[in-house]
Amino acid sequence: MNKSYNILLAACLVGALFLFEAPGLKAGTFNSGSIQEEEAASAVFKKIEKGILSGKVSAISNLFNSQIYLSLSNGVNGYYSSNQAYYVLQGYFKNYRVVSFSIESIHNEDGNEVGTGDYSFSFKGKEERAQVYISLKKLGEKWKITQLTID
Amino acid sequence: MSIENRSLREKIFKKIKGDRKYFAIVFFILILIILSGIITPIIVQGVRDNWQSHLSDKISSIQNSVTSILNSKEDKLLGCDQRLRSELRKVLNPRNNSYGALTRVVNSDEFDEYSIEVLAPNGRLIAWNSSVAIPQNDILPLAFPAGQCHFYNGDLITYFTVTDTVLADNDQFYFVVSIPIEKQYTIQNPYYTQVSFSKELSNKFLTQFEIGYSPFSESTRDGRKYSFDLVNKQGNKIGNVTFAKPALDTEIDSIYQSTGKLQSILTVLACIFAAFGFRGEFKGLKYRTTKILIFSFYCVVFRMLLYYVDFPSNIIKGPLVNPAYYSSTFGNGIVKSPVEFFITALFAIIICIKGFKYLNDYIHSDAIRRRGRVIWFAVFFIPVTLLFLVTIRGFCASVKSIIFDSTLRYFREPNLIPNMQSMTMNLNLLMLGTAILLLLVAYVLLLASFLHNEDRKKMNFIFAGLFILYQVLGYLFIRYQHEPLITPVMMFIFIILIFWLAVIIYRNKLKNVYNFVYITLAASVISITLMNYFNLKLEIASLKTTAFEINRPNKDLLHFLLSETLQEVSNDENVTASFYNRSTNYYAEAFKLWAKSSLQRESLNSSLSIWDKNGDYAGGFNSGINPETKMMKAFSGYTDVKPEIIETADPQDSTKKIFTGIVKITDRGFTLGYITASIGFDIQDINTAAIPNFLESRKNIINPVIDVKRLKIFKFVDSELANVYGDIYPSRDQIKPILNAGFNSDNEAWLTVPLNNENYYAFLLRNNSGGTQTITAVLTREKRLSWDLFNFFKIFLIHSIFIFLLFLVLFAFKIRDIRFSFRVQLLIAFIVISLIPVVVLAIYNRQTVQQRTQTAIENELGERLNYVENLIKEELAEIPSHDYIEAFNNAGQDLGVSFAVYEGSTQIYNSRDQYYKAGLFTDKLNPEVYYQLTYLSYREFFTQERIDKFDFDSYYKKVTIAGLPLIISVNDAFNKVRLSYSVTDIDVFLFGIYTFATIIMILFSALLANRISSPIRRLTKATASVANGDFNVELDDKVKGDLKELYSGFNSMTRELQKNQIELAELERENAWKEMAKQVAHEIKNPLTPMKLAVQQLIVSYRDKNKNFDSIFEKVSSTILTQIENLSLIASEFSRFARMPNFKIEEVDLLPVITDSVNLFAHEKIRIDLKTHLHEAPVEADKNQFRRMLINLIRNSIQAGGDSIELKLEHSGGSYVLTVADNGPGIPDDIKDKIFNSNFSTKPKGMGLGLTLAKRFIEGINGSISLEDTGGSGTLFKITIPQYGGKG
Asked: Do residues B177 and B83 lie in contact, with contact meaning Cβ atoms separated by under 8 Å?
């Protein structure tokens, strides 16, 4: 009798945990993780901002995904390997020299972090502006740039 | 003074003679580099200090240059105008009047780049060529006086044009010649041809140019810019040029860049000349190991220097330096572009060729044979094997990078011979492959040489053992690698190829340069196999990219693209200006805006429309989204100047969501109009004909790696199939593996899915957003072998061009050595005979395939045209009241076929009218079609037409609809006729197979020619030996047939000759002795007579006791002594007469004489190796005597039973030392001291003179010959001859 009672009690406890605690635990973990992820993504965007401002691709190349979508104002448009993206961007920053760059808004879309901003550059002595769209995706434990548009 | 100067100059030149002159050049270059470094900042400072005056000069220079460029364009146009006028005068003359002749003149190739229109005196257009620049109504009245050049602004293109007149029989005809000068739109795709005078100037003068192509264009008021008018030759203003004044920073930057380029070129030149300077020292190095190490070090340093100074990347432009075509971060960027890769591969192959040659020599040197071979094998086996395996992996990684780090799709190139960048990358791959293969073969040869054995069978066993060992190790290397790059089967095949090459090279002549052709051929096969394999990997990996690409256009991105487009158009001054222009073609304007926006670049379904200030539709351009004419209602509340974007339903399919945005165009607060743009994405729209190929940003952006038609895409929302792309709609059972797949932490999964009895590779991407789970599955069928073969031939064809070029280069280098021997003639005959049918077949097959392809396209277009015609006729027959234009419209919508209808030469309907409204196509009938159908009364006509670089097929037919004679045309510009195999596919198969066959034929021809000519070559060599006095030569008579008789005859002949020679020599000797005895007797008799008489006189005087006896005795004694002296003189004379003939002493290079002598034994069953590091060996000797002596020594060795002879020539102590060693039984000790004696021989037929004469000859030239102690077996003769001009 005692044995049956104990089993029943244990089952109720597990059930209660499952019904009430688990979702709460999960939600708590998720929220905390989400905030941490947002902070991590924000730090990545800061790093990108600093890297592009310095005009040094090496400062952001470790953030490139194995395949990265580039769309640049010099006509570059398509998927590039991280190796290619390094030199494609190096050539772009060399000719379209950065004057100012800032990421103005960051938001989450379908689990990806998206940053948009303005890129002012000097081309053949003339200063021009372009819109920037950067998309980050979390792969493993790291945020990687999957798209960089400067149009 | 002048004598002193000359003397000084001579002194200087004397000092910098030889290698020193290179160092003088290097020194001069270094001074230039330093000077350029010093001068540049001074120039920069000068520019900075006098910037205003410099700027003024620069502006003036730019203005003059621009005017000059325009003048040259004007001259060219007027030249064309003159030529055309002269031609027209002939054909428009009523006596020669023929419309065909007029059409031919106007459409002749001479005027191909121009647009030509000819108008009758009444202003009617009577002839034109394929591009009509100015509409008929805009030509007259003339905008400019006849014969004066000016600009004409078309809807999309601005032309530089001239209208002129020509008189023919008192009738004045008008003609217009135009050439595009500025395209007002840009499309980023391979078919677009850029024509832009302003960009041409911007690139030339490194500042931005704007050109107003109108005499009313005004100068700028912006102080940062400069304007000037463009005038024609008559001094009339035709336009205005405005350019941004060059900025100081840009100017300074440009000076530094120019200096940098100059310094980089100078540095490269200095390196090259320094290498020439050290050439002498390099040659003088004693050890080849040191040489090869120094050479490799120099190459590496030179390569790094080139990289450091960014040469040649900094001086060339274009695709070869574009990292998109290839770039890797390997080596910090030494392969960052196709041209950098080329330079690196070039240095790699040079080092490898040098290393390979060095190793070859090393392998066959005494050093490696005499030392403990097995110990060396044991020492080197592990490191060499590790290097072997790591080198293979390195090469695989390189090929993988070539495929993965490039946007070039080598197997999908549309042309048989691809573009420059693809050709370069293929060459790079072949060079790298050859370099690697040289290394791999060298490793195997090195290990095999440690176990070298003269017995061929034993050597075969050694190679077989090594092969098995390497196969096992190769398998284990692949099996236990963490991430193997290739499969064990591939490794197995590569090792087979490498060993096959190693065995061939080991057995054949190692220094044969054609070995490099074999190695290159094998490198091609291996590299293409790897390319094919990694391309398959890339195709699979591209499924992942496709899944990302499908999920990329999310709400946020579409919103961004629309916002960006609308902001851009609202800031565009041209857009504002267009609203003020009453004649603006808003369709063309919308197309221009669409073309330069991201809507075109992203290749998504989109549209862009222009509305007037009342919200009425003015014009637009769409690709996949047809804007609703009532769209403005959706934005009824819009008042802002900023863009507003909303999510709405697609007007054509309400189930699809699209984004639409609006922006107001204002000027100084007044509303001029509105621009709306829409964008949407749905996987069902992938690869639809919404955007024609000639406008698509890049073909198949969704997946450029494989044909999108091969993909199957499924999208699941909350485990329910929501969307499908492709021809398979999967059942619930079929989608179970996808839904139950195990996703990794990145929400990705790979699996193989069986669908309709076929296996598919699938990539799955899961997305959790807003409580909804979506899974995107992208699938492609497993590859088939036939496609792989296609890939192989596609690349092999390109490689074979390079291999053929290599063959030609080697042939050209060896042409001096090539004698048109029987073998060469046989080879040429075989190749010619086998190539003729191959070439004929290839040409015939290609023509047949082309004809069939054209017929297939013609039939398909003919069918489309018949559908259109029948449908129109049926509709008009059913409802006679219908307007025929309405019937055309219905047919266009029902069939989805692109067609046009012409009345006379003017288009009255087009199912794709937006492209005509925008001005992308002319509405005038193709002039050739007009002539064929109207003047020659043909019923149908099939032709090829083009827009920019995009070719398409058109089919025209005369029809009668509603009683009207019309012409209907259909074309495949918007939906290409799909053939099971394209002409390129067929070309690849045909030429690939034929090229492969040709190479195989050449190899077999060489083999057969070698085999057939071998007996003849042996006979030739034997004859040459006989001619050189070697009668001991004997041919092996084991051959069969006629050759056996020939060989036997030759052997009998030489034996007979030898016998005759001996007999003749004996006879001659006998006769000589007889003659000499006679002469001796005769000569001796002469002094004997006076001696006899004198003695007799003395006896008589003695007997008579003559009192003068004393004086008589004295006289007689004197006579006798004189005669005895005479006899002595006679004896000396005879002795001198009997001496050996005199040698012909001259300067002789021993090396070629030795080589020639050795070559005489090339076809005897004996291995003769000549080893020397010397390039020449000059001595004073008689060449023929030396050759005879050497042949005699070699022949002695062969006759003694040796099968290997080694000759070694060295330089030592002012003399050259030649050793001749054989592996025969040797000379017994008891006769060693007799071998140089005359008449001593161990051979039954020997005369015993050979070595005696050899010794006499060598000693006659102050040399020595001796038999050395070999310690048992073999014989070794050492010959020492003093160096020419040396002290010895």
From this structure: no
B246/A125 touch (CB, cutoff 8 Å), yes or no: yes
The pTM (predicted TM-score) of the whole model is: 0.75
Of A75, A79, A147, the CB nearest to B188: A75
Paired tokens of A134? 């950067």
> Tokens at residue A101, please?
């760059």
Question: Would you say the C-alpha torsion A58, A60, A65, A71 has a positive or negative sign?
Answer: negative
Contact check, Cβ <8 Å, B556/A151: no
d(CA B22, CA B528): 43
> How do the residues of chain B divide into helix, strand and coil, expressed in percent and rounded to 5?
55, 20, 30
Give the count of alpha carbons within 13 A of B243, CB side only.
29
Q: What is the ipTM of this complex?
A: 0.77
DSSP letter at B124 equals: -
SS3 of B168, please?
strand
The dihedrals phi and psi of B419, each to the nearest 5 degrees, come to -75, 175
| A46, two tokens | 């800061």
- The Cα B671–Cα A30 span in angstroms is 50
CB atoms within 10 A of CB B206: 15
Give B1230's DSSP letter.
G
Could you tell me which chain B residue has the CA closest to the CA of A58?
Answer: B329
Any idea which residue has 């002159």 for tokens?
B21
Q: At what angle do helices B785-814 and B420-450 cross, to 10 degrees?
A: 80
CA trace torsion B528, B531, B536, B541 (10° rounding): 180
What's the CA gap between B591 and B578, in Å, rounded? 13
Strands (DSSP E) contained in B1028-1166 are 1146-1149
Question: How many Å apart are CA B435 and CA B432, to the nearest integer?
Answer: 5
Containing B304, the helix (H) or strand (E) segment is helix B288-308
Q: Determine which of B322, B405, B597, B703 to mutate to test the interface with A (most A C-beta atoms within 10 Å).
A: B405
Minimal C-alpha gap between B1151 and chain A (Å): 54
Between β-strands B1204-1212 and B1167-1171, what pairing exists: parallel, antiparallel or unpaired? parallel
**pLDDT recorded at residue B1124:** 87
Closest C-alpha to A150, from A91, A62, A108: A91
Contact B1270, B1200 (CB under 8 A): no
Contact A140 B745 (CB under 8 A): yes
pLDDT at B416: 76
Q: Do B324 and A76 touch (CB under 8 A)?
A: yes
Return d(Cα A105, Cα A131) in angstroms, integer.
12
B544 contacts on A by Cβ (under 8 Å)? 67
DSSP H helices, B941-1041, are: 983-1027
Spell out, as residue ranges, where chain B has pLDDT lower than 70. Answer: 1-18, 96-97, 364-372, 508-513, 628-632, 652, 654, 684-690, 698-703, 784-788, 814-820, 976-984, 1037, 1134-1142, 1162-1165, 1238-1249, 1270-1272, 1286-1288
For B1032, the token pair is 């001991």
User: How far is it, in rounded angstroms, from Cα B561 to Cα B678?
Assistant: 10
Q: Which residue has the tokens 């096959």?
A: B500
Q: What is the DSSP string of B664-707?
A: EEEETTEEEEEEEEEEE--GGGTT-TTS-TTTSSSTTTT-SSS-
Helix or strand run (H / E) with residue B266: helix B248-277
Instruction: Enter the tokens of residue B788.
Output: 């792989």
* Parallel/antiparallel/unpaired status of strands A64-72 and A142-150: parallel
Q: HEC states along B782-799?
A: CCCHHHHHHHHHHHHHHH
Within 8 A by CB and 6+ apart from B388, the residues are B440, B443, B444, B470
B1060-1086, pLDDT tens digit by residue?
Answer: 877 887 787 788 778 777 777 777 777
Question: What is the amino acid identity at position B566?
Answer: L
In the predicted structure, residue A32 carries a pLDDT above the cut 50: no
